[in-house]
Write a structure and sequence with these properties.
2% of the residues lie in helices and 33% in strands. It is mainly beta and 963 residues long. Strands 1, 4, 5, 7, 12, 13, 14 and 18 form an eight-stranded antiparallel sheet that branches.
Length: 963
Amino acid sequence: MLARSFVAVSVFAVSASAQSPQLGIWNFDSSSGFAAIDSSARGNHGVLRNFTNDPAQWVVGRFGNALRFDGVDDVVEFAPANGLPFFTGGGEAFSVCVWVRAAPGDDQVVLALGSSTATSTAFAIGSGRASLGTAGRVQLRVRNDAAVASTRTSQGVAFDGAWHHLAYVEQAGQGRLYLDGVLDPANFDDRFGVRGARTPAYGGYPFDTISLGGTRSLCCPLAGTLDELQVYATALSASDVAAIVAGGAATRYRASVGELGVGCGPAPLELFALGVPAIGGRGVTFAMRGGHPGGIALLGVDVGRVVPADLSRFGFPGCSLYSTDPEFVAMGVFDAGGSIASAQLPVPITANLDGVRFVFQGVAASPAGIAFSQALVAQIGTLANRQRSFDFTSEALMDRAQSGGAWIGGAGSFAELGGDGRHGDFALSDGQPSSATHWLFSTDSQRITAKPSTASASDVTVSDGTFFFTSFVVPAGITVEFTGSKPVRLHVRGECRIEGTLLGAGESPIATFAIKAPIGHGAGGWPGQAAGRGGPSGGRGGAGAFGCDGTGNPNQPAFNNFNGFDGEALQVPAGHVLSGAVSGTPGHGSSLFPAHGDHAQLRFNDPGSFNFDLECAASGGGGGFVVAGGAGTCTEAGSVNNPNPNTNPLRRGPSASGGMAVAFGPLPFGVSSSDYYLVGGAGGGGGASQPLFSQTGEVFKYRSGSAGGGGGGAIRLSVGGDFDALTGSRIDVRGGSAAVVSLATANTRGAPTPGGGGSGGTILLQVVGARAMNGAIDVRGGDGGRYASGVFRASAGGGIGGAGFLRVETPNQAPSLPSLGTVEPPAVADNAGVLVERDQRAGFQSVWVSCGALTAPLWVRYVVRADVDGIPRVFSDDPTLGPPAAEGSAPLVFLVQGADTDLAGALLAEPRIGRWHAQVGAFDPSRGSLEADARLGFRWRLSIDRTLSADVVVREVHVEFRD
């Protein structure tokens, strides 16, 4: 009957008479509430016990959100229904997969099965124990009917504070553990042999509870996070586990036109079908699971009507044969997991077969007996591909919030700026909170966690200050502060909206410090105030001087430390156009005064009156930038409470010079704005050591100095979409201000010399889309330090930091100065310019769309048609149509993502969102695909790589699928 040629078999999902092997999929993607939603067809929803009424338990997970356990009493419990509990000790096949992030800890339970009438656990997966040398490893624990425990422990580590995937697969007591998709070499055979057989009730107690994060009796709590729990009533293969680790589910076997009966016989045999349902396609592959290892697998094939035959009278009770005249095809021998996958089914290619139905049924023969699977009824037929097309005639299907460029007139054009959006939507949760309203991000080492909007399925660390976001929003009332040694380069592919504060200012050194040495301190002086750090890439302020030890020896090595330290100069990279001009920009530290540094030579008021020293060093100078930094001084503003002002006047040290001004000229030829204008501000100078207001009887009369403020940072905002700075918002790279010194307690503390302010930094704002600037932009220098006293009228003034620089660039025409909003100091002509720079990467993406079916289709391929340098090109994951739009090999990079949507394309309330894939069809099985994710809806993103071609216009994108 069967010739050795091939034809594809259509397999349509119109019947659900046989249960899916999925017992539950818990994605933990809620953001509030006390339910663990099962997104499988089983509806095995869990209940959160002892969690606080706080959404903090729902955190960013490995995919979407995840559930965090407090390590005390948090537990999730499931009712015994719909296939749960999955383990009865009877040798059944099952698989448990879960993502775990937890630190090492003794006996932390991830998942446990037990009894409502006993405290002991019958089956548990968790962590090892330090006392046994198994800390951080995975431990499996099983009890038999006599309550004898069997423990098996992995060789690999999964509890180390990072995300790890655990997949435990068991069949007939033979277990396998996969860590991050790799088979662990430890032996997980949990059969008890001579020690007793397992039964559905151990010690007379029933298996009827299942819990996560600890046992039902709250033993062994987990201090960590769980995500993407999947439980199957079958033994997963290594390829299944690999697919789950990649962010999908186990291989999705399609139901047939009719799926009849259930498996019967000595093993729970199941038959699945997978393939392209089209004549001339790649055919259908059949697989069986649940057989005995080493058994022989056969596939029964028949044509025509389904006429079930009851096999009870032949010694197979409860079994039916669903074909009248089957022909059996040998599939091979079951592997150690009881599974087998055949080659494509050979069927004659005959036009008369179009529309004919075939009946398939698996049969397994082993020493244990003969088993039958359920039947699949499939129809041969030529099925045309359907597709969702995007023709770029309008932006109705464009996700404008995450896209730059334009879709108009049949052309998809890329914006000049914006990047490829690889880091997804900006998320506050990636930063470190210094308060509920203030979040810190580092340009030197910033982790971006994997989330549905990120291109990578793994966390990434940014170490060069360059971020590629799809959208960037700073909420109202929130401050987002960037720190670090690198300038901030924010590439925003779509919308950039500032409602709160974007901060890159230099630090103001306000920390308290000891201004005089303690009794018993030796030579060398007492350290001054620590310098204020610069904003991102800004120069550091100068530290305050060491308090002079009063030895009066200018030749001692530490004597220069008694002068205030200079701030750092403007920060430019090597080879910058201004690199030869920045050396004079730091604020200078002031000089020790009196310069002799000798306690014995100090002069005080008349004995019997106040006995205070009235010798004052100048303050530190301010850092310079576009405007020169101010000089640090000390002046006499009066002589209140000085009984003899003529004989005991205030004596003042020399001024400290501020940093020089360095002006930007016209943009040099061949230099980009982002290379030219991103300059970190200069730091202010530190204050010198002085004895002002010290008293005659003190051991250490000279005080240490205050520090200078840090230079403002450098921020580039490269926006391919729209930019909106709302009223009340602020972008701030002001220089750090030096401290204000209070002299209210000068008679007991003395007076440190104030420092100078840091200069402002730079803001380069480049916007391609619409622009609304109703907030404030601050590039001012920081204030110099000063004295504040209503009694002693010595007046020290630190140098004010020079102003930094703002540059706003838009295409075709420079923006008007009034359109820049409130700029401090007020905007001038050089602050506005025409955009000529282009990012190497830019992109756009679609909204979510549906395939228009009630069940997941077979996802076939994508096709992108574009004009590259004026020449029409076709890109596809199908190699028969064209090369892929792939990273490094094409000027376009295509990515696609699947999700649970309704027929209109809207995400469901608790959607499963897959990872971004480079292919729609599973052309390369070693890589993920939209086909492997088995979702109803999708969205795609496309970015240009201008290193390979600068002129690309996209004409059409379509994604093909079959029902």
